[in-house]
Task: inverse folding
């Protein structure tokens, strides 16, 4: 869990998708694209919260220690 991209963010695939959507929104300058981006980011965040709860129950202390070391979304911030 602590190598590659997972050493920097716990959700690299979702983060990449959100970054892609932000870029698409900025390129298109579309209110619909902005709405889709915000809705997707909220959905991903809620999904991650549920996933992390299940992973903590399944994997226990090693996963909990990992969550203390690696940020959920943006390395070093959030």
Result:
């Amino acid at each position: 869990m602590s190598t590659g991209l997972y050493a920097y963010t716990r959700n690299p695939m979702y983060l990449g998708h959100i970054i892609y959507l932000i870029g698409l929104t900025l390129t298109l300058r579309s209110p619909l694209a902005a709405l889709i981006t915000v809705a997707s980011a909220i959905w991903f965040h809620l999904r991650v919260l549920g996933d992390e709860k299940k992973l903590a129950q399944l994997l226990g202390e090693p996963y909990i220690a990992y969550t203390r070391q690696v940020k959920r979304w943006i390395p070093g911030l959030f």
User: Anything to note?
Assistant: The chain has three helices and no strands.
